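Appendix B. Raw example, untouched.
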Amino acid sequence: MIVHLAQADITELAVDALVSPANSWGIMGGGVAAAISRKGGPTIQKEAMSLAPIAVGAAVVTNAGKLWAKRIIHVPTIDEPGHKSTVENVRRATRAALLAASLHKFEVIAMPGLGAGLGGVDPGDAARAIADELRAHKAEKPATVYLVDIDEETVEYLQEALEVATG
């Protein structure tokens, strides 16, 4: 797997799938999920909610509405809207996203820094959990993962975690 890191708007990427941090109800009310819903249109959230409840550690794949991406992989990092996440939930959500990408044979996915922003997880801890799961994923797909976030600090934490994970 090739991993690229960038400070960017995930909603602007033309990839097979975007990873959207979610809650178990599929409500895309804040952070990255809200940006995806806002730019992609209401069909994304409508489909995600029709597949709820989605357990933390599971993933569902929906349409991507008007976005350049083809699909959205929804991975809950929290059970209820407004709750806080944990490092273990970030780890489980990352693993679920990678497994969903593999199952659906997505070549290229884009993933934000999960759990840090509205989820309340320390950004360094969240970045290390993401990097560990990327390193542990041995399936052929996805072949390429773009780790992207609009927050400069999150990108710096992801860079540091990737450097440590790859030795």
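End of appendix B.
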